[in-house]
């Protein structure tokens, strides 16, 4: 009974924090809990970025690093394991033209990734931050090694968000990335992001 009350409180808190309906928050947290059962050994930490309108959850041993704006002017932060450089996460946030959706965002990113040697590109539906989104997957092969990329994308209030997950051990990390996408949270936006200098 106590556990059920705690879960209902979590649902109400998420609904209040994200603006979702109670039913949407309930559905989201049930999925998160189901994924967590497969990741029970992972200790998660939640990092809020209210300046960018989101919160991300990453494994406890990961830390936040500054964005690399030479890579993309839309980077907001990077996250990685202090002791294991085989995987990481970059969070992107950018303004969207009216009518654009996550699928169009994925198609634009697909072209950029193809241009730098990624192959096996696929775009499919995904749930990101409790919303409809897309998952763009691809890989780069080099000297018998693979770099696998998972881009989870969604939009809200004229802003596009992307969790750019990368790994050299995809079989071990795919479930973790799926949990990150489910646990990603979007806050009510006060104003859309401004285009950084030099961005098109």
* Residue fraction in strands: 35-45%
Residue-averaged pLDDT, rounded? 87
Number of strands: 10
- SS field, number of helical segments: 4
Name the shape in a single word: globular
Order of helices and strands: HHEEEEEHEEEEHE
* Biggest sheet architecture: 7 strands, antiparallel
Distance N to C terminus:
54 Å
Number of domains: 2
> What is the CATH topology classification name of the largest domain?
Protein Transport Mog1p, Chain A
The CATH homologous superfamily of the largest domain corresponds to Mog1/PsbP, alpha/beta/alpha sandwich
Which structural class should the secondary elements be placed in?
alpha+beta
Multimeric organization: single chain
CATH class of the largest domain: Alpha Beta
Question: What is the second-level CATH architecture of the largest domain?
Answer: 3-Layer(aba) Sandwich
Low-confidence stretches: none
Précis, in short:
The protein is of the alpha+beta class. The chain contains four helices and ten strands. It is 31% helix and 38% strand.
């Amino acid at each position: 009974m106590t556990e059920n009350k705690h879960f209902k409180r979590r649902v109400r808190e998420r609904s209040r924090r994200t603006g979702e309906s109670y039913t949407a928050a309930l559905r989201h947290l049930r999925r998160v809990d189901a994924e967590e059962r497969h990741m029970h050994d992972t200790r998660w930490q939640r990092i809020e970025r209210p300046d960018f309108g989101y919160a991300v959850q990453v494994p406890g041993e990961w830390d936040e690093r500054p964005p690399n704006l030479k890579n993309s002017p839309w980077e907001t932060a990077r996250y990685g394991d202090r002791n294991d450089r085989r995987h990481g996460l970059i969070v992107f946030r950018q303004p969207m033209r009216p009518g654009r959706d996550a699928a169009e965002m994925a198609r634009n990113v697909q072209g950029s990734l193809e241009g730098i040697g990624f192959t096996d590109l696929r775009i499919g539906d995904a749930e990101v931050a409790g919303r409809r989104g897309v998952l763009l997957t691809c890989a780069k092969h080099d000297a018998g090694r693979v770099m696998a990329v998972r881009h989870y994308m969604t939009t809200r209030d004229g802003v596009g968000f992307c969790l750019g997950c990368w790994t050299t051990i995809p079989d071990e990390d795919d479930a973790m990335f799926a949990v990150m996408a489910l646990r990603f949270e979007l806050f009510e936006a006060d104003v859309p992001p401004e285009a950084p200098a030099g961005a098109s």
